[in-house]
């Protein structure tokens, strides 16, 4: 007997990421090859956005996806988040050339107040929320604070794109495939202060700094390439990453819904319980494992060198600063 559909809300569904993301969800990449989905597609209540959304919906119809049980296109948040099991919060303004993601906070932050409240009042009480819209850690914090009836543990922000980027850089340097790499932790903020941890990553079973002897590259070019990859893509395309962002969101949700392979971890920005010296209550990226079903636990016991400590502390400090800027939006 076929499973009942999971209801998934996607905001900004007519945007760049939405366009790359929706076929991946509807084809089963996110929730599995036997899991039907109903998509609640949410856009701004403006004619141009809703017209574009209707075109996206026509295309999804035309794909005749066996797992697509239905679609609701709306600009009404109560309808859009009604009874959803997952809310994927993508819709918001992307940065342009020369901006940092944090520069978007004043404009994008307020979006997550209304969406948090609408999720609280309309979604399934066990709804999981993944925030992509930038600055995603702090936007997630805003949504979480405005949805007091949904457990804090159900909120996450996406640093999987950074994890995947870091793996690609390490694979290139070590001359291996990304499948030879695991446990790639991104610490802190999805920003230019994030720290991709080359000491705890595993490359063919060895620690990253043992597999790659060029320590100067690891401490320098590797870190800055990952930290600034989003800006490099904006400079090259004139638009921010979309296909890779959508793919990372598929990985993010898939790996929270399916149990993590033994011994492995993934990077997810979740509410801090103080582990690894990260201030409690911030949404910070840490290594997690999942038992499946959307849950997670922080993987404990990683060794943190003095070098790593300074990098993590700098990113946490930036998150504290972002929180100070939007404190009035925390309800
Ligand atoms: P886009 O401009 O192509 O699309 C955004 C869409 O969101 C538009 O269709 C717009 O109408 C819609 N929108 C805006 N405000 C909305 C609201 N309040 N409710 C519903 N819809 C709304 O942008 P994009 O390239 O798809 O990027 C979206 C966001 O994702 C940006 O903030 C970008 O910086 C961020 N992003 C994050 C990551 C990450 O790794 N966390 C990666 C890439 C992009
Ligand atoms: C990314 O990392 O590609 C996104 O966060 C978009 C950006 O502004 O860099």
Structure characterization notes:
This protein is 40% helix and 17% strand. The protein is α/β, with parallel strands linked by helices. The chain has two domains: 6-157, Rossmann fold; 160-325, L-2-Hydroxyisocaproate Dehydrogenase, Chain A, domain 2 (Alpha-Beta Complex), CATH 3.90.110.10. The strands form four sheets. Strands 3-2-1-4-5-6 form a six-stranded parallel β-sheet, sandwiched between helices. A hairpin with a 7-residue loop joins β13 and β14. α1 (16-26) crosses α11 (243-257) and α5 (111-122) packs across α6 (136-145). The longest helix is centred in the last third of the chain and has 20 residues, at 306-325. The model has no long low-confidence stretch (mean pLDDT 97). Residues 11-12, 14-18, 42-44, 49, 90-95, 111, 132-134, 136, 158, 161, 190, 240-242, 245 line the site of nicotinamide-adenine-dinucleotide.
DSSP helix fraction: 40-55%
Specify the overall morphology.
globular
Calculate Rg over CA atoms: 19 Å
Q: Strand portion, in percent?
A: 15-25%
- Got a strand count? 14
End-to-end distance: 44 Å
Mean of pLDDT: 97
Output the strand order for the largest sheet.
3-2-1-4-5-6
CATH class of the largest domain: Alpha Beta
Number of distinct helices: 12
CATH superfamily of the largest domain: Lactate dehydrogenase/glycoside hydrolase, family 4, C-terminal
Helix and strand element order? EHEHEHEHHEHEHEEEEEHHHHEEEH
Examine the coordinates and then state which fold CATH places here, giving the name of the CATH topology of the largest domain: L-2-Hydroxyisocaproate Dehydrogenase, Chain A, domain 2
Largest sheet: 6 strands, parallel
Per CATH, the architecture of the largest domain is Alpha-Beta Complex
């Amino acid at each position: 007997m076929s499973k009942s559909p999971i209801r998934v809300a996607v905001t900004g569904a007519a945007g760049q990421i939405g366009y790359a993301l929706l076929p991946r969800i509807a084809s089963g990449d996110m929730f599995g090859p036997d899991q039907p989905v109903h998509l609640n597609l949410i856009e701004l209540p403006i004619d141009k956005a809703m017209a574009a959304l209707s075109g996206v919906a026509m295309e999804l119809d035309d794909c005749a996806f066996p797992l697509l049980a239905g679609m609701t296109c709306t600009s009404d948040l109560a309808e859009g988040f009604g009874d959803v099991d997952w809310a994927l919060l993508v819709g918001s303004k992307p940065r342009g050339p020369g901006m940092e993601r944090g520069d978007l906070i004043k404009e994008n932050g307020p979006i997550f107040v209304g969406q948090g409240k609408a999720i609280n009042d309309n979604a399934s009480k066990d709804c999981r929320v993944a925030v992509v819209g930038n600055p995603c850690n702090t936007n997630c914090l805003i949504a979480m604070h405005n949805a007091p009836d949904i457990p804090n543990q159900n909120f996450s922000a996406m640093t999987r794109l950074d994890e995947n980027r870091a793996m690609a850089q390490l694979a290139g340097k070590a001359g291996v495939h990304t499948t030879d790499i695991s446990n790639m932790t991104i610490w802190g903020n999805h920003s230019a202060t994030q720290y991709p941890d080359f000491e705890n990553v595993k490359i063919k079973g060895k620690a990253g700094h043992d597999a790659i002897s060029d320590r100067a590259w690891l401490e320098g070019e590797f870190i800055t390439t990952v930290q600034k990859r989003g800006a490099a893509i904006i400079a090259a395309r004139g638009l921010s990453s979309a296909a890779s962002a959508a793919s990372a969101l598929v990985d993010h949700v898939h790996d929270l819904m399916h149990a993590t392979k033994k011994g492995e971890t993934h990077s997810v920005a979740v509410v801090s319980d103080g582990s690894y010296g990260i201030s409690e209550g911030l949404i910070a990226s840490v290594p997690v494992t999942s038992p499946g079903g959307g849950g997670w636990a922080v993987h404990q016991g990683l060794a943190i060198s003095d070098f790593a400590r300074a990098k993590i502390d700098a990113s946490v400090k930036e998150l504290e600063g972002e929180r100070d800027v939007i404190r009035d939006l925390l309800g």
